[in-house]
Amino acid sequence: xSHPSKHLLAIEGLEPPHIADLLDLAESYAxxxxxxxxxxxxxxxxxxxxxxxxxxxxxxxxxxxxxKRLGADVINMSVSQSSVNKGETLLDTASTLNAMQCxxxxxxxxxxxxxxxxxxxxxxxxxxxxxxxxxxxxxALLDALxxxxxxxxxxxxxxxxxxxxxxSRVARSNIHLLTTMGSRVRVVGPPTLxxxxxxxxxxxxxxxxxxxxxxxxxxxxxxxxxxxxxxxLVPSAREFFRxxxxxxxxxxxxxxxxxxxxxxxMNRGVEIDSAIADHPTRSVIGEQVEMGVACRMAVLDILAxxxxxxx
Length: 311
Ligand code: CP
Prior knowledge:
alpha/beta
C-alpha cells in the first residue's frame, strides 16, 4: 500500500499505483459499510479535526462518519463560532490546533493553497477537503470509485465533464485523476466557463453539449459556482439550462449505458433536469455520496499508517 506523502493535498502528483491503492482500499471499506460492520480499533486514540471555512454537507459529514467508523475522536470546528470571527489568522488557528496534538486535520478553505500552507505549520496529516478553485481530491477519488464500480475500469472510458469548469476544484481533481488513469476526458461548456489553458490539462474542449456528449461513457455535471464568479459569465439560469443543462434529449447523445454524475449540491433546472438527476438506472448521484464515506475511510487509514504511534 503506497502513498507518497504524509498529507493528501491534491490529486496532481499522484501516480497510477497510488490512486489504485486508494481505490482498492476504499472498495473494501464500501463492502464493510454495506455489511454494517465497523473497524473502530484502527484510529482508536487518534483525533481528527474537521476545519471548514466554507459550507459543506457531504464532505464534512462523511469525514465525520469515516473518522467515527474507524474509531477516531472527531471534532467539528464551526468556524462561525470560532475565534476566526475575532480576527484570528489561519496560521494562528493552526498553531492552536497543533498544540492540542490533533493527528488528522481536514480543511476546506476558499483560498487555493490554504491546506498546503497549513501542512507546513502543523504536525498533523492534512487533508484538503476543497480549496478555492484548486483541488478537491477526495471528491475525485469517490467519483473514480463510483465509475469503476459501474464500468469495471477507468482506462479508455470517455468522460464528459460539463458546465462550470473554470471555477471547479472538482473538475480539476477529476481531470488529474482520470487522465492519470487513462480515461479520455472532455470538458464541455460555454467559452466563459472553460479556462483558456484547458487543453494543457490533456482534455478535449467542446462548447456544444451534443458534440461533447457523443459516445460518452460518463456524463459528469457541475454546479454553476456563482460565489466564485466575479461578473456575469452566464446570461441567465434559464438560458444556461437550454444550452448546457442535462436533459433527456441531450443525454440521448451519450452511450445508452452511460452513467450520470453530479458532486452536489445540485441546482435542479439549472445544470440538470430533475428527471435525469433522479433517474433510477442512469443517475449514480446517491452512490457517489455513499462512496464518499468509503473513500474518506481509505484516506484516513492510509495517512494514519504514516503517523508516529505516540503523539
Ligand atoms: N461535493 C461536495 O463537496 O459537497 P459539499 O459542499 O456538500 O461538501
